[in-house]
Write a structure and sequence with these properties.
Shape: globular
Distance between the termini: 45 Å
Largest sheet: 7 strands, parallel
Oligomer: single chain
Helix content: 40-55%
CATH topology of one domain: Rossmann fold
Radius of gyration: 19 Å
Number of strands: 12
Order of helices and strands: EHEEHEHEHEEHEEHEEHEHHHH
Number of helices: 11
Structural class: alpha/beta
CATH architecture of one domain: 3-Layer(aba) Sandwich
CATH class of one domain: Alpha Beta
Amino acid sequence: MKPTLVTGASGFIGWHVARLLAECGHRVRALARSTSRLSGIEVDRVTGDLRDAGSLDRAVAGCGLVFHVAADYRLWVRNPKEMYESNVDGTRHLIDAARRAGVDRFVYTSTVGCIGVPKDGIGDETKPVTLEEMSGPYKRSKFLAEQVALEAARDGFPIVIVNPTAPVGPHDVKPTPTGKIIVDFLKGAIPAFIDTGLNLVDVRDVATGHLQAAENGRVGERYILGAENLTLSSILQRLSAITGRPAPTTQLPYAVAYAAGVVTTAFAQFTGRPPLAPLDAVKMAKKKMFVTHAKAGRELGFLPCPVDDALASAIDWFRANGYVS
């Protein structure tokens, strides 16, 4: 069996994709920086970086499948150029390397942020969206990277795109912005909330969706991997039901949150330390990112579980690994 390459195996989604592949009998090869930890998964490590084209040729050599999950995922960055180099240029370099290696299938992990969501409506893969609608370097760089993937598909490259929503569950090492909501709730550090909403999904279901995309996805198509549309208030209420901790009841006006984003982000640019309320995150929160995964259900067989078990698993993992006392 040819090896299967996974980028981003030291991250949240990538770790679960690599673990599931290994459990299914794949010989997993993981591209990782020398400083990255790959604990708890059976993989063959290849040291490299998305910004180093030569390391990508070595990583994909002999591979049949490639899962490109890695991304620079930060809602604030002092030097946006770094994000574009990893997310856009890195994706282009890896696709080029995979094309030269003659891989059979390439699954690219995009983001729900690249899905069009009408005002007060539900987004899906057919809704139009433009670069101008992307808030901040992360969403803009991922949008441009997705365009690179779609262009490769039009040129005949066997690539399928998945658009995960907000994953939750165990092994959220960084943690992700959604994981940070859980950690902050456990610490009692969320005194108020704003009127926003997002789609949550169990990270283990997202990993399954990646494998289903490799097996059943149509080349050049995008598939939303999500589960439940929830307001932030509803998420906090569910966390309260699981933990017994009270959920905040004060709703913060958006204008106040925006002002906090402006001030803390400006201060972060001066100090170099991430802001408490990144302005790009506040801008993103203005729109409820409610979407449907119906297409993935029809074409991939994607059937996600309710997210309550994922929230409980995330809470247990954060507690067990010292994120909260």
